[in-house]
Every structure is written in structure tokens, then in C-alpha cells.
Design a protein that fits this description.
Beta Polymerase, domain 2, 4-stranded mixed sheet, 9 helices, about 250 residues, 2 domains, about 10% strand, alpha+beta
Length: about 250
């Protein structure tokens, strides 16, 4: 493909997912025409880590005109892709991207660093991220996670299964924030972008509870039994609080 995009046949994904993405690409090009600027995979699949039927396929759908009328043109195609392969579209206008980089800097940085172009222009490759806004967003995200977990120490106290599910779902978002925190602090990033490696590096750099974070990574992978979920929940919550405090104390250049 001349636009720098990849073929869905080269994806490390189940055949059904690759097939659905191939159909989606063709059908969106037909439905949106010149209004379709780019289709960009991000998240787990872009990292080569699709976790089966429970995983969403994160796809940025970039349009020149993202008005409700133009979105309705592609709605049937996107609904079919959700049913076929849990494709979760993030529909953005091309002109919005610089503003989104200020509002959601951690998300845009993650997409910039880990994405696969299926069609069109690589609009995220050179997006600029303000380090000061990035530091503030990391502090906000980590603080929000800590506060939600503190509330759920009460709300889920009688439901260990729900506690474990919450922890498993929070592991990757936490790893993304900790990766950004490591970057902002000038700390070396792990050679592999695996949650377990990120947790280990962050534990060393910011004096976090490495044992609890290692258990969290194992829980996310489904290869670890947790004897005391409530204890682990509290320890991870404390680690999130400490990481937020580390983010608050960072001095970054503008």
C-alpha cells in the first residue's frame, strides 16, 4: 500500500478479527469516501496482544468532517464491526487532533508510540504533546484511580470476585500511566512494553509496592491465584496513591 498502511493479513490477530477489519476497511472507504482520513489501530492489538473474545479492538476513525450527519453515514458499518469483532471506534475529526493532544495527552502519546495504520494518513505519528499537560494528566489519572479504588474498598468489600475483576481491568491503564511517569521522570523504559516489566521498573523508580504490582500483573494474565484479594486491592490502591504523589512532585520543562 502506497500510503504507508499495513495489510490486515500481517496482523497478529485471530483470523476472524483480521477478516472483520479487512471488511471494515473496505466498507468504510466506500461509505465515507474522501471524508475518511485514516483508520488507526491502537491499544492491545497494535501491540500484538489480542486477548481473545473478551478484548475490544481499539480503532481510531479519523474523518475530515465528524459532524453527526457524516458519522451517520458510517454507523451501520461500525455497528457490524462491533458485532463481528468488538471493534471499538474512536471517531475524531482531523482538525480536533491537536486539541485532543492537550485534553488527553496520555492517550495521544500512547497512540503515537503504539499504533498501526490500516488506511490513509499517519496523522498521529508527529502529534505534539506538551510535557506539562502530560504530567498533570498522569497525576489526574493516577489520583482518579486511587480514589475509585478507595471507594471500592468499601463497595466491593463483600465481593472478592468483583474486586479481582476490577483489579484485572485496572492493570493495563495503570501500566500506561506508569510508563508515562517513567518517561517524564527520565527513567529508562523497559525493553518490552509488558505490564509486568513496567510495574517492576516503576516500583524501583518510585518506591512502589513491587510485590503487589507483580501480583496484579499475574492477575491480569490469569496465571496467578490471589489468596487475599482485599489485601492486594488495598496495596495496589496505596501504590497508585504513591505514584500520583510522585507525579505531583515532578518538575518538567515546558
Amino acid at each position: 500500500m502506497g500510503d504507508g498502511s499495513i495489510s490486515v493479513n500481517t496482523l497478529h490477530a485471530p483470523v476472524a478479527v483480521a477478516t472483520a477489519l479487512g471488511h471494515l476497511t473496505d466498507e468504510l472507504r466506500a461509505a465515507a469516501g474522501d471524508n475518511l482520513v485514516a483508520l488507526v489501530l491502537y491499544g492491545g492489538l497494535a501491540r500484538g496482544r489480542h486477548r481473545g473474545p473478551r478484548s475490544n479492538v481499539d480503532l481510531a476513525v479519523v474523518l475530515d468532517d465528524a459532524s453527526p450527519e457524516r458519522v451517520r453515514e458510517i454507523t451501520p458499518v461500525l455497528m457490524a464491526a462491533w458485532r463481528a469483532a468488538r471493534v471499538e471506534p474512536w471517531i475524531v475529526g482531523r482538525a480536533e487532533i491537536p486539541r485532543l493532544a492537550g485534553v488527553f495527552p496520555t492517550r495521544l502519546l500512547d497512540i503515537r508510540e503504539h499504533h498501526l495504520l490500516l488506511h490513509g494518513e499517519d496523522v498521529f505519528a508527529s502529534v505534539a504533546i506538551d510535557p506539562k499537560l502530560l504530567r498533570l494528566r498522569v497525576e489526574q489519572e493516577l489520583t482518579n484511580l486511587s480514589l475509585r479504588m478507595r471507594r471500592n474498598l468499601v463497595g466491593l468489600a463483600a465481593d472478592p470476585a468483583s474486586m479481582a475483576a476490577f483489579l484485572a481491568g485496572a492493570a493495563r491503564p495503570l501500566a500506561i500511566q506508569l510508563t508515562t511517569l517513567l518517561r517524564l521522570a527520565g527513567q529508562p523504559l523497559p525493553a518490552e512494553d509488558r505490564s509486568a516489566d513496567v510495574f517492576a521498573a516503576a516500583a524501583r523508580a518510585f518506591e512502589l509496592d513491587g510485590e503487589a504490582l507483580a501480583a496484579l500483573a499475574g492477575l491480569r494474565q490469569g496465571d496467578a491465584d490471589v489468596d487475599d484479594v482485599a489485601d492486594l486491592f488495598g496495596r495496589v490502591q496505596a501504590a497508585a496513591t504513591r505514584a500520583a504523589e510522585a507525579a505531583a512532585g515532578l518538575e518538567v520543562a515546558g
